[in-house]
Amino acid sequence: MTHFDYLIFTFGFVLEVLILWRGLRTRLWRHYPFFYVYLGYVFIRSLILFALAHLQFSGYAITYWLSDAAAVLLWFFVTWEVFRQTFSSPLAVRRVVGQLLLILLVGLTVALFFGSKSAGLFFADLERKAGFVQAALLMATLLLARYYGLPLGRNTWGMALGLGMYVSVAIVNFASLELVKSFFPYWRLIRPLSFIGMLGVWAWALWSYAPNPKSATVALEVSERSLVHWSQAWSEVRAVLRKAVGL
After folding, report:
1. DSSP classification of residue 115
2. Residues 232, 197 contacting (CB under 8 angstroms)
3. For the residues of 12-61, what is the DSSP string, one character each?
4. How far, rounded to the nearest angstrom, does the alpha carbon of residue 192 sit from its chain's CA centroid?
5. How far are the Cα atoms of 16, 42, 82, 173, 203 from residue 206, in angstroms, in the given order?
6. What angle do CA 118, 240, 88 make, to 5 degrees?
7. pLDDT value for 204
8. Which residues are within 8 A (CB) of 70 and not within 5 positions of it... i.e. 6 or more apart?
9. N or C: which end of the chain has fewer CB within 10 A?
């Protein structure tokens, strides 16, 4: 490991410990359990990878990428946390938005993971595509929250902002790496710095409990006509999917 690697690890480790410590001290983990599952995994992964690198373990590279793939899947925990905090009520709004986001998730997953002809590195391609799905889901969640007039507290907004920034950089980063192989030295610099940036945003946003504020608009209810419309639309989508897979 280079001096830069040690410096990045130290910064990241300190921020991870700080966020976890504040989460335990202020009991934030009880309010945002899915978020802290992801962060706990990242913390344990950092310790294991640091130890393996220090011991010059021969299987470090494959361990790094396999554990990174698991971390990518756990991004969905943070996205789910943002969604369930944003649309905790009213139930009618949560139902409609949940259907919309599920349609978006299925559509993007099929289009990206099964429709792409990319021949790039497997893990880089996986993270780029998963990052795009996460960014789209986060953006859709925030736009729909604005549409329904649902205010966000510092905790929820910070979780969304931090992950959104990180996955956006990952999309551009891995796309550049796949197109231009000479981009690799910059990738080694940009990727960890963007991760430090995400942790910095989370340390600020989750320093204390700041839930979504109550608002008169939160009490709004989606009209029965709108609910019926989306229920019918979702039933049609499920029917098409069943036909497509031959069920």
Report:
1. T
2. no
3. HHHHHHHHHHHHHHTTHHHH-HHHHHHHHHHHHHHHHHHHHHHTT-TTHH
4. 16
5. 12, 16, 13, 27, 6
6. 85
7. 95
8. 41
9. C
Q: What is the pLDDT of residue 216?
A: 44
Coil vs helix vs strand at 103: helix
The pLDDT, as a whole number, for residue 246 is 54
For 190-226, letters b (16+ CB in 10 Å) and e give bbbebbbebbbbbbebbbebbebeeeeebeeebeeee
**What would the two tokens of residue 236 be?**
């049609």
pLDDT score recorded for residue 105: 62
Phi/psi at 235 (nearest 5 deg)? -65, -40
CA distance from start to end of the chain: 52
Domain ranges within the chain, ordered by starting residue: 3-244
Position 81, amino acid:
E
Q: Which residues contact 42 (CB under 8 A, 6 or more apart)?
A: 16, 71
Structure tokens at 41: 């995994």
Low-confidence stretches of the chain (pLDDT < 70) are 1-2, 89-124, 174-188, 215-247
